[in-house]
C-alpha cells in the first residue's frame, strides 16, 4: 500500500548583502585634499589662480566617497542582523523531518520512513523500485502521473509476495517518463534535524546517522 504525503513548503534561502571597505577612508582623503589645497593656495600664481570648477569637482568626489563609506557601514550592519535572524529561524528546524537527496529508506517494526523524488517536468508514469541491502528487488510501486516538483510518499512495507518487509535499510530508485521520453528524477530520503551549526560557508544541519546537509539541499519540510 502507498499513500502520498501532503505537499509542504520548500525552504528557500535568500542571498545576503555584503560590504567592503576601501583601502583609503574618506576622512584620509579629505585630510590629504585639504593639505594639498592649502599648499596650492599658498603657492598659486596670482596671475593664474586655481580653477574653481576643479575645486568643486574634487569636493564632489570626496563627498561621494564619504557617502559610499557610510552606505557600506549601514549594509554591513544590516547583513549582520540578517545573519543573526536567520540563525534563530534555522533552529526552528530542529526536531523536524526533512527530505534531502538520497535513496535510503528505513523499515522498522511498525513504521517506514517516507521516500520521494524531485523532477523538473511533468511525468505521465512514475515507478519506484525498492531493493534490499543485497540489491534484490523486493517491491515495485506504480505512482502514476505526477506534476513537476517534489513529491513524497509513505510505503507500508508490503513486499511483492504480500509479506511484510523485515526491519532494516532499503534503497529506492525512481523511473519517470512522459511523451518525450525518460525524465531525470532525483530520489529523496527522509532525515530528522538534530542540530543547526552556522559556518563561514553557510548553515549546516546535523541529520544524525544520515550525516549533514546544507539548507539548499532541503527539498521539503515535513
What does this structure look like?
The protein is an alpha+beta fold and 222 residues long. The protein folds into 2 domains: 26-91; 94-221, Immunoglobulin-like. Helix content is 26%, strand content 33%. The protein contains 2 helices and 14 strands; from the N terminus they run E-H-H-E-E-E-E-E-E-E-E-E-E-E-E-E. The strands form 3 sheets. It has a 6-stranded antiparallel β-sheet, with no helix packed on it. The chain is elongated and about 105 Å long. The relative contact order is 0.20. The model is unreliable at 8-23 (pLDDT under 50). InterPro entries: FlgD, FlgD/Vpr_Ig-like, FLgD_Tudor. Keywords: Bacterial flagellum biogenesis, Cell projection, Cilium, Flagellum. This is Basal-body rod modification protein FlgD.
- Structural category is alpha+beta
Q: How much of the polypeptide forms β-strand, as a percent range?
A: 25-35%
Please identify the top-level CATH class of the largest domain: Mainly Beta
Mean pLDDT: 80
Give the N-to-C terminal Cα separation. 20 Å
Number of helices: 2
* H and E string: EHHEEEEEEEEEEEEE
The radius of gyration over CA amounts to: 30 Å
Largest sheet: 6 strands, antiparallel
Strand arrangement within the widest β-sheet reads 1-7-4-10-2-14
The CATH topology assignment of the largest domain is Immunoglobulin-like
The name of the CATH architecture of the largest domain is: Sandwich
The strand count comes to: 14
Helix content: 25-40%
Domain unit count: 2
Taken from the alpha-carbon principal axes, the silhouette is elongated
Q: Detail the poorly predicted runs.
A: 8-23
Amino acid at each position: 500500500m502507498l499513500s502520498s504525503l501532503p505537499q509542504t513548503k520548500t525552504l528557500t534561502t535568500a542571498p545576503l548583502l555584503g560590504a567592503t571597505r576601501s583601502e583609503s577612508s574618506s576622512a584620509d582623503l579629505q585630510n590629504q585634499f585639504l593639505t594639498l589645497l592649502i599648499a596650492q593656495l599658498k603657492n598659486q600664481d596670482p596671475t593664474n589662480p586655481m580653477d574653481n570648477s576643479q575645486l568643486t569637482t574634487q569636493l564632489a568626489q570626496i563627498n561621494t566617497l564619504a557617502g559610499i563609506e557610510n552606505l557600506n557601514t549601514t549594509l554591513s550592519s544590516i547583513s549582520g542582523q540578517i545573519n543573526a535572524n536567520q540563525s534563530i529561524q534555522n533552529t526552528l528546524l530542529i526536531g523536524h523531518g526533512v527530505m534531502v537527496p538520497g535513496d535510503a529508506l528505513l523499515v522498522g517494526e511498525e513504521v517506514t520512513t517516507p521516500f520521494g523524488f524531485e523532477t523538473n517536468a511533468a511525468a505521465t508514469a512514475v515507478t519506484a523500485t525498492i531493493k534490499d541491502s543485497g540489491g534484490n528487488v523486493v517491491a515495485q510501486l506504480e505512482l502514476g502521473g505526477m506534476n513537476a516538483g517534489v513529491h513524497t510518499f509513505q510505503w507500508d512495507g508490503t513486499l511483492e509476495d504480500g509479506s511484510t518487509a523485515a526491519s532494516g535499510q532499503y534503497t529506492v530508485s525512481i523511473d519517470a517518463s512522459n511523451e518525450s521520453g525518460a525524465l531525470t528524477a532525483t530520489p529523496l530520503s527522509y532525515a530528522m534535524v538534530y542540530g543547526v551549526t552556522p559556518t563561514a560557508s553557510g548553515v549546516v544541519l546535523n541529520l544524525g546517522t544520515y550525516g549533514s546537509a546544507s539548507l539548499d539541499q532541503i527539498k521539503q519540510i515535513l
